Amino acid sequence: ENEFRKQIAEHYKDGLKGMSYGQSPALVAISIKAAISALQGNVMPQLISIPIPVADYKTLKDGENYWSNLSANFFAPNQFLPCGVTFTAPEIMAQSEANLK
Fold it and tell me: CA-based, 20 to 30 A from 48: which of 4, 24, 29, 79?
């Protein structure tokens, strides 16, 4: 996803119009937080709706919703501030097998 956004940002002045959206892997973190809250006995809503992150050629901002200096192999939007999920792309890309334990 980051590569697709990089390409849109790079070529929009040449006439490329693109839109990027999709289900972020960060939705898993939100689901786990909701499950833990329910297991702790908190009343949960019957419906939880999280907006899908969307960006287009007009709204792409380097370092905010895509990263030109990072590789292409990750989904760029991973922050859902109202849910307390604040993974940034540089934080995710800095992870390795060594710090997963």
Answer: 4
